[in-house]
Amino acid sequence: MGQMRKRHSATFKAKVALEAARQQEMVSELAKEHQVHPVQISQCKRQLLDGIEALFEPGSASRRPNPDKLQAELYEKIGRLQMELAWVKKTRLLAERHRHFKQPDLVSWSCLPPSVRSLGEPRLGLTARRPAPPRSGPT
């Protein structure tokens, strides 16, 4: 069976990327020393060099969200979603109860003779009537 895939922490990747950026040792030597593939070291180094400018841009610290503010917003959203869910459940329950009392009794409907059943099922608030025959004669 193969080896388990290793997951390296961000601090380990930063350490290896800094050593590769210093260029004091070759990438293959660093790979042997830290027991990682040379491509991984190159990727970490490239990621480090691509993102280093963002550290020195003005306002970079203000772009990071305040964890307390973020937590408060998330709790507020959770509360709102819980209220909405409770409302939906309540509305659904009321609708089911309403439907339960408004539906005709299907058992008694099936017990009717076929001649009556051919008229169609009764609708809520409507009575089943046959249309009046057309009148013949002078108007």
Automatic annotation (TrEMBL):
Record-level GO BP terms: DNA transposition
InterPro entries reported in the protein's UniProt record: Transposase_8 (IPR002514)
Annotated spans, Disordered: 115-139
Pfam families recorded: HTH_Tnp_1
MF annotations from Gene Ontology: DNA binding; transposase activity
Highest taxon listed in the record's lineage: Bacteria
Name used for this protein in its record: Transposase
